[in-house]
Design goal:
The complex is a heterodimer of chains A (77) and B (163). Helices cover 64% and strands 10% of the residues of chain A. Chain A is mainly α. Chain A has one domain. Chain B is elongated, with a radius of gyration of 28 Å. Classes of the chains: A mainly alpha (77), B mainly alpha (163).
Amino acid sequence: MKLNWFTRKGIIFWPASVVGWIILFLAAAYAVYTFIDINGRSHSVSDVTINFVFNLLLIGLVYSIIGYFTEMRGEVD
Amino acid sequence: MKEDEEFLKKMENLNVPEVNPTGHPKMVKMAIMNAERSAALGVWLVAVPCYFLACVFMYYSFNGHISWFGAMFKLATGLDKTPGIDFMAPIVLVVLPIVCIIINALAITHVHYEKGAASRAGAKEFVITIKLRTWNILLILISLAIVFTFIAYVMTENISIKN
């Protein structure tokens, strides 16, 4: 089955369909939720920065893996 | 009429470039994976361990009395206490760079077995071709550096615990 949910611009996978936009929205919503959660439990700015950026990069990684496998393929390398 | 004749003469005396068909590649060397897509995903795969190492470097620079191993140990134990990431630390810091090495290596290498090569009749050749693509090679080198850093850390940790 061919899934054309994303299109790649550089290192960013950009949504190309409704499903792609839903995934992007969910990823952004989860990132905001983790920030609020981590901010509530942290005692310093460095605590928030270290833990949140780590989580944000992981969310970006999972999003990119989904984008990698569901990218529109029209070109030959 | 005269102009036409002159034109024909000119065309007849044109120097035609000689094409040597044997000089052209005999086969299209297709890699297993798309190089640009692999590089795009590779950046995300090394971003997390690179961020961790950047944090270690900052901790090491701002705390003059601590060694690089101490800084790494401190942040690694801090990572273990973070909910959701505690069990993922080794996967994120070692497995992801290894995945990055594999996908980028597959994107730039082409392996071909040739029986009875053109140079020597009857000779068997295993030809490995590596495409020189800057981003893919750079990502492989960064991933190797990350993996070796963590191997060095784990070895030092084991030795220090035993002693």
